[in-house]
Amino acid sequence: MKNIIIQDNHLPYILNNINYPTGGASVQTRNWMYGFENLGYKIIIISSAKIENKTNYTIINSGNKFSFRGLIFLSNIYYNYKILRKYKPAFIYISEPQWSNIYIGIISKLLNIKIIQRISNDNIADERIKLKFGIGKNKKNKFSRIKYIFYRIYLLLIKIILCQNEYQLKLFKEKYPNKNLMKIYNPFLINNAVVLTEKRSYVAWLGIFQKQKNLEGLFDIAKKLPTIKFKIAGVESLSIDDKTRYAIKRLRKLDNVEFVGLINRDSVLDFLSKAVCLLNTSHHEGFSNTFLESISVGTPIVTREKTDPDGIVNKYNLGNVSKTNLGLCKCIEKCINQKSDINLMRKYLLEYHDPLILSAKVIKFIDNGNNL
Length: 372
Hints:
single chain; alpha/beta; six-stranded parallel sheet; 16 helices
């Protein structure tokens, strides 16, 4: 049985059923795992999560390193070398590109092991990536610039990149014309055990409270629709900004808004199944996994055109889309007055997001790719 190494810092929380704000990239990775395992591969996980592993998976804590008298760079190189030599993976899947990937990038290059890099958000594909590293006109942080340089070197080392949508694919083709690029949607395994109900009584909003998720826009919509109940699920980001914090404060004062906290992964589908729609107010996404979770239980999506990946919501009748933030109010009202077609939604999921089919396509792409 061949090994696949998966590098994902938050995946162990999901595998061990620990209620933690993991983010969509790790949720997606869990579905890739299902596909790869059913194709006969054994999964080895590298993660910085410091938790007790109660699963049967091998989880390597990337924080357990030693240092050659303070030579951190060489220590990291050697640490990754030992892992790759021991497990000899067919390839490495990395859920999010980070500057620290340079260590495994260098060793995989030397050992001729392929890295499959997933692009998890649109802001990684365009110039907004610099903001993630704290690089801007008014920001001068030498260490951040070094990290950014390492990040760019890492991307130069790898040859296979999986994009989520056409926007990402276009930008990476322009930046890296010689790389093997593939657009492939997120895998999703339908859970038939969820009990569906006709009693849908609120607008669901689900996510981590951070600038990207645009809680200011959520406040404007909830205030505009005082007779409609909104349930907000999630917790504050560790790096929450002042505007988001202020928006939360204002949302808590609205009579039609209820904060339900961080929902356990096992309860997400139940939460969505009782909603008239899933509202997405984000400034940007890649391909939100909450979209797939929502339509799997027959709950339509309400979002803006800019966060509708490849226009799938409009194209496949998966909800309602608006150009503007306040235009989402009409979309919500439309969902309330329409009955969604769960059979149509699940047909879409089976055709475009089946984990086995998509994982097999990735394996075929790796095996048949040119100049890998």
